[in-house]
Design a protein that fits this description.
Low-confidence stretches: none
Strand order of the largest sheet: 9-8-7-6-10-11-12
Helix content: 40-55%
Number of strands: 12
Bound molecules: NADPH dihydro-nicotinamide-adenine-dinucleotide phosphate, (2Z)-2-iminopentanedioic acid
Order of helices and strands: HHHHEEEHEHEHHEHEEHHEEHEHEHHHH
Largest sheet: 7 strands, mixed
Oligomer: single chain
Strand content: 15-25%
Distance between the termini: 28 Å
Structural class: alpha/beta
Length: 446
């Protein structure tokens, strides 16, 4: 089996040299899907995995705009339309200086499996730009978004490709993007998700990814007769996903002791409570400040340039970015007694870190399963837009809980290995793969 995986990866590597994040994501999937394909030869004959690993389309474009000083700036925009076998392309937009084709292809590839797992009819895509929103005025962000959409609009549509938010793209950016799409296309449709409630957004969409991660962690803990209540939780990130994961942890009685940003992390041994979280939301979403200010305000420790994985905990929720948790971090977590890791970010744990979690037989869930709540509620936003109705918070939240429960069941069904141990990566990959593969076979060689 190792030889088959190596042969497959050698071909992928030769076609995608210099794309390390994309290769990492494909490698992880290949390790669980190739043995499954060997046991189910029809997928081999149709070359499904080879086809899934090749984007249907990669669009790259110039985004010129004028900053407040009157200078012209040039960024690069992308949309990766990865797979449309089970529905229109669906996935977020990331605005961050690190954005490149490799990162967006890895995210789009992961999205194909994630979206399939939700059970909703959504294909996979991802896009974004190397634009850095940090330190930019609202006016500059609007100018950038308008220029970005002036090209992107021709590639998207409510029935073709429906972008949403990701790192650096939140309610403000979605608003500017939607306004420009509507202006150019002359159409008020659900072409973006993550919209504000006043113009077609779904209630619970801002909360969905973070809440969903905690719902998923609860499902995992249940398999060991445990619950999240009373547990100590280490969280990385302080953006959209982290904020609402912390909110849900507080609601279910867990103690969150860390949050971070790209400069460092805060450690609050007393736990982040509702008032402190409200401070973080104002700090990050309104003032757009640094997490270090929290330590000053509440008199706790701040670790400049460090990650929170050395803090003792029961549960770890990596909610910032890819490859933020490596093998030494994983070892430290396990040695300190951490027994449940649920990814809110996409691919935050390196392949080596995941091997350490699996060898230690702790509960580990890959983002494509545990962070699927965000795109799931995006799918529900699309349904509400098509129906031209809005569901209540309770309605959306209960559907979200149900979807996270079903994803967990699918992971257990296809991921149970020796005895009771569940390999959630394998479970998620196989469950996500089957639906896409069957749809691709039915649709012929396209
Ligand atoms: P935000 O932009 O709201 O927040 C991102 C957070 O991660 C910030 O705290 C940011 O710190 C930190 N961060 C970003 N890049 C880095 C980096 N290179 N190194 C260290 N820290 C970093 O994004 P989201 O919360 O929306 O996204 C977080 C993760 O969750 C991403 O992996 C995203 O793909 C994933 N995700 C998001 C979903 C959503 O619905 N939004 C859905 C599913 C997954 P700083 O402010 O200093 O940059
Ligand atoms: O990674 C993700 O799933 C997202 N950024 C959300 C995508 C979406 O379409 O809501």
């Amino acid at each position: 089996m190792d030889i088959l995986i190596k042969e497959f990866m050698a071909k992928i590597e030769s076609r995608n040299a210099h794309e390390p994040e994309f290769l990492q994501a494909v490698q992880e999937v290949a390790e669980s899907i190739i043995p499954f394909i060997e046991a189910n030869p029809k997928y081999k004959k149709h070359k499904i995995l080879e086809r899934i690993a090749e984007p249907e389309r990669v669009i790259s474009f110039r985004v010129p705009w004028m900053n407040d000083a009157g200078e012209i700036e040039i960024n690069r925009g992308y949309r990766v339309q990865m797979n449309s076998a089970i529905g229109p392309y669906k996935g977020g937009l990331r605005f961050h200086p690190s954005v490149n084709q490799s990162i967006l292809k890895f995210l789009a590839f992961e999205q194909v499996f994630k979206n399939s797992l939700t059970g909703l009819p959504m294909g996979g895509g991802k896009g974004g730009s190397d634009f850095d929103p940090k330190g930019k005025s609202d006016n500059e962000v609007m100018k950038f978004c308008q220029s970005f959409m002036t090209e992107l609009y021709r590639h998207i549509h409510a029935d073709i490709d429906i972008p949403a938010g990701d790192i650096g793209v939140g309610a403000r950016e979605i608003g500017f993007l939607f306004g420009q799409y509507k202006r150019i296309q002359g159409e008020f449709t659900g072409v973006l998700t993550g919209k504000a409630a006043e113009y077609g957004g779904s209630l619970i969409r801002p909360e969905a990814t973070g809440y969903g991660v905690v719902y998923f962690a609860e499902e995992m803990l249940k398999t060991r007769g445990e619950s999240i209540s009373g547990k100590t939780v280490v969280v990385s990130g302080s953006g959209n996903v982290a904020q609402y994961a912390v909110e849900k942890c507080i609601q279910v009685g867990a103690k969150v002791v860390t949050m971070s940003d790209s400069s460092g992390f805060i450690h609050d041994p007393a736990g982040i409570d509702t008032a402190k979280l409200a401070y973080i939301m104002e700090l990050k979403n309104v003032r757009r400040g640094r997490i270090e200010e929290y330590a000053k305000k509440y008199g706790c420790d701040y670790f400049e340039g460090e990650k929170p994985w050395k803090i003792k905990c029961d549960i770890a929720l990596p909610n910032a970015t890819q490859n933020e948790l490596d093998a030494p971090d994983a070892l430290l977590l396990v040695q300190n007694g951490c027994f449940c890791i649920a990814e809110g970010a996409n691919m935050p744990c390196t392949l080596e870190a995941v091997r350490i979690f699996d060898a230690a037989r702790v509960l580990y869930a890959p983002g494509k399963a545990s962070n699927a709540g965000g795109v799931a509620v995006s799918g529900l936003e699309m349904s509400q837009n098509s129906l031209r109705i809005s569901w209540t918070r309770d309605e959306v939240d209960s559907r979200l809980r149900q979807i996270m429960h079903q994803i967990h069941e699918a992971c257990v069904r296809n991921g149970r290995v020796d005895g009771d141990f569940v390999d959630y990566t394998r479970g998620a990959n196989i469950s996500g793969f089957i639906k896409v593969a069957e749809a691709m076979i039915a649709q012929g060689i396209v």
